[in-house]
């Protein structure tokens, strides 16, 4: 299978890492971190246990020319850190809006990397969105703090299905106006 990753997305750099597009060499670390139950259970889309080939399928899906999900990895090699520390994504919605999602590998929790990545994504606004949304599970207050620290405002409660938990989970929903 030949996978071509679009190059039109900007590289976003911070002091500690760059947010760059996913590449084929990321598959192993994507499987490693996404296969951690603690990561999977805080997302709606990552199953646990992670099936074989999940990293390859993820890269192929987000590399497709018609994808509605734009994904960047946190690459710390510029600062002598690991090549993949977490993932940020924007899923396009109607009316020039996107939904922000992210996860961070457990070795990098509570280091400020998530806030730094969200700030870089918001500052660059790579899809030129008017509005960003984000939802976090209510048992993940650390991710809620990241959003609030990056200028997102709480707009209400909802629920979302978590594949890893095989259950509906209460969420908090946030919004950030970009213009």
Structure commentary:
- The protein has 179 residues and is of the alpha+beta class.
- The chain has five helices and eight strands.
- It has helices at 27-34, 37-40, 54-63, 113-124, 141-149; strands spanning 12-13, 18-21, 69-75, 86-92, 97-104, 131-137, 153-162, 167-177.
- Helix 4 (113-124) links the parallel strand 5 and strand 6 (131-137).
- The longest helix has 12 residues, at 113-124.
- It starts with 11 loop residues before the first strand and ends with a strand.
- The relative contact order is 0.17.
- Mean pLDDT is 93; it is low at 1-7.
Topology:
Elements lengths: L11 E2 L4 E4 L5 H8 L2 H4 L13 H10 L5 E7 L10 E7 L4 E8 L8 H12 L6 E7 L3 H9 L3 E10 L4 E11 L2
Parallel strand pairs: 5-6
Antiparallel strand pairs: 1-2, 2-3, 3-4, 4-5, 6-8, 7-8
């Amino acid at each position: 299978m030949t996978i071509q990753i679009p190059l039109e997305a900007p590289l976003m750099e911070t002091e500690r890492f760059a947010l760059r597009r996913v590449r084929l060499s990321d598959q192993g670390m994507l499987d490693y971190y996404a296969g951690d139950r603690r990561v999977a259970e805080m997302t709606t889309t990552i199953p646990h246990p992670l099936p074989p080939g999940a990293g390859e399928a993820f890269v192929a899906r987000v590399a497709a020319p018609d994808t509605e999900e734009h994904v960047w990895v946190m690459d710390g090699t510029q600062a002598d850190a690991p090549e993949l520390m977490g993932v940020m994504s924007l899923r396009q919605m109607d009316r020039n809006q996107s939904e922000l999602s992210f996860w961070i590998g457990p070795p990098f929790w509570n280091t400020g990397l998530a806030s730094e990545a969200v700030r870089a994504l918001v500052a660059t606004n790579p899809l030129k969105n008017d509005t960003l949304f984000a939802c976090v599970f209510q048992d993940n207050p650390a991710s809620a703090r990241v959003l609030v620290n990056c200028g997102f405002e709480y707009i209400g409660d909802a629920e979302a299905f978590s594949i890893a938990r095989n259950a509906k989970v209460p969420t908090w929903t946030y919004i950030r106006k970009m213009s």
